[in-house]
Design brief:
[FeFe] hydrogenase H-cluster radical SAM maturase HydE; FeFe-hyd_HydE_rSAM; TIM Barrel; eight-stranded parallel β-sheet; 14% strand; 43% helix; 348 residues; binds S-adenosylmethionine
Length: 348
């Protein structure tokens, strides 16, 4: 185990068999060693900083039927909402006053928000806040659409690949297709977005071999950001009887990702924080370096229920995270927090 972990630290690469060996055999002693190497790598790239993003969930309408997701189209118990331009701008203005410099606008795949609508919105946001980094997380669209939204001023795009195993992908995403998902990620990169991929831990049929495929897919794609979170079953979805994804395994996968992609921005996800009281601390100590706090208006927050008991931490709770970060030797950084390879940002 030591040889493989040392090799990973040195080369930032492992083959499939080596990754499977780690996942099959790691114990608490080697976990501590893995996390230490992941932290050393993080200190070398971004230092002891945790970047903070304001997350605005602006619509829970979705045309898809992902079998794990609480806001899937066929869940008729969802109280659907869409925020107007005015509501979106007002949420951003409040968070900007709190010092936030990066915003993530997330929604289901909602075609109500046409390219023209979003282009206007993005331009208006960028006119008001020229210095901020704007991220979209709105699912799959055409190359042309991604290109228009980029030209309008969007900096980043989050689109998790969910699983790199095409059979599992196609089974859990009716009417969607792995090749299209993968194609969208390469489109986003080609256009120039800081692109985020990532996967869910604990999906049905997901073995360590499949997780190794996820990590190798990430290594090949080289995304700027990687979100990894445990599955949290939602009672109104076909996966209601599935077990919760393992937080321990999620944290190991965060550490392996840090070592495979030293320059990736890796959030400690809301899902991990929801099922694990010390998710934030454990995730950061394993190489995670981003936290997303919620800036959606209170009156819609509970309605964006992708899984049960979603632990939405409010943007105003920043001080709590400052203290929690300090306790483990980190500081919360409110700057844009770009990936090191973007904006000529080699000296971030
Ligand atoms: N529609 C956009 C997309 O497809 O990228 C963004 C919104 S989607 C709700 C955001 C993420 O939530 C997904 O990428 C998925 O990984 C995660 N998610 C949905 N349901 C989940 C669940 N039950 N447990 C854990 N993560 C979940």
């Amino acid at each position: 185990m030591k040889n493989i972990l040392d090799k990973l630290y040195k080369d930032n690469y492992l083959n499939k068999e080596e990754i499977i060996f780690i996942l099959d055999n790691i114990n608490s002693k080697w976990e501590s060693y893995l996390f230490k190497l992941a932290r050393k790598t993080l200190f070398r790239t971004y230092g002891n900083r945790v970047f903070v993003r304001g997350l605005l969930e602006f619509s829970n309408y979705c045309r898809n039927n992902c079998i794990y997701c609480g806001i899937r189209k066929d869940n008729k118990n969802v109280d659907r909402y869409r925020l107007s331009k005015k509501e979106i701008l007002s949420s951003l203005s409040e968070s900007s006053r709190l010092g936030y410099n990066t915003f993530v606008l997330q929604s289901g795949e909602d075609i109500y928000y046409t390219d023209e609508y979003l282009e206007d919105l993005i331009k208006e946001i960028k006119l008001k806040y020229p210095e901020i980094a704007l991220t979209l997380s709105i699912g799959e669209r055409s190359f042309k659409s991604y290109e228009k939204l980029f030209k309008a001023g969007t900096d980043r795009f989050l689109l998790r690949h969910e699983t790199a195993n095409s059979t599992i992908y196609n089974n859990i995403h009716p009417d969607m297709d792995w090749n299209r998902r993968k194609g969208s990620l390469y489109d986003l990169k080609k256009i120039g977005y800081q692109t985020g991929a990532g996967f869910i831990v604990g999906l049905p049929e997901q073995t360590n071999k499949v997780l190794a495929e996820d990590l190798l897919f990430l290594k090949e794609l080289e995304p700027a950001m990687v979100g990894i979170g445990p599955l949290i079953p939602h009672p109104n979805t076909p996966l209601k009887k599935e077990k919760i994804g393992s937080p321990e395994k999620t944290i190991i996968l965060i550490a392996l990702t840090r070592l495979l992609l030293p320059e990736a921005l890796i959030p400690v996800t809301t899902a991990l924080n929801t099922i694990y009281k010390y998710g934030f601390e454990s995730g950061v100590l394993a190489g995670g370096n981003v936290i997303m706090l919620n800036i959606s208006p209170n009156y819609v927050r509970k309605k964006y229920e992708i899984y049960k008991n979603k632990e939405t931490k409010d943007a105003k709770e920043l001080d709590i995270f400052r203290k929690r970060a300090k306790k483990i030797g980190f500081i919360v950084d409110m700057e844009r927090g770009d990936n090191l390879n973007f904006r000529g940002n080699k000296n971030v």
